[in-house]
Amino acid sequence: MKLHQQTLTIRLSQIKDAQSLMDIDALVWTERTAPEPLLWPSREDFLQHCPPASQLVAEADGIVCGYVGFRHPTGLAGNRHVYEINIAVHPAYQREGLGTRLIRAAKNWAAEEGKLKLKLRVLSTNPGAIAFYRKCGFVEEGRFMEEYQVEGKYVDEIWMACFLEERPKFDILV
């Protein structure tokens, strides 16, 4: 697809997007990119885990072509300044800048919501995604060594994060 020739809208997800988002998940989250393929058992199950307005959806001329989901990593009040994100772009729209636009939109959305940090997880066997996240300003914060067994091999899970604004610097008193 030639995304630059189409009208692109990034908006909050709606209930009508469920099937398109499920289809993207089935195409993108495979044994190469996730600990196991993501196949939703039902529309209801998808909507329970990904309710409307829990994702920013990219729509090109009326076709859902990607998303970035966001959620609080824990239910703790002291962690409400963080969103954990996940991003998927339909293979037909990859490598056209859509992922970068979605990450930029997610950063703007999170900042407007008062969030200070975005974090995500990626498998060490996905160097393209790691490079993409670095290009978008994410840095590695941690690594769980041999966290998953994928196709008979142990792989690391990398945790990456991006801070949305300069945090205050505190002097350490000794």
TrEMBL record:
GO terms for molecular function: acyltransferase activity, transferring groups other than amino-acyl groups. Residues 8-165 form the N-acetyltransferase domain. The keyword Transcription does not apply. InterPro entries: Acyl_CoA_acyltransferase, Bact_Acetyltransf, GNAT_dom. Signal peptide: none annotated. The keyword rRNA-binding does not apply. Keywords: Acyltransferase, Transferase. It comes from the Bacteria. PANTHER family: AMINOALKYLPHOSPHONATE N-ACETYLTRANSFERASE-RELATED-RELATED (PTHR43877). This is GNAT family N-acetyltransferase. The lineage of its organism: Bacteria, Bacillati, Bacillota, Bacilli, Bacillales.
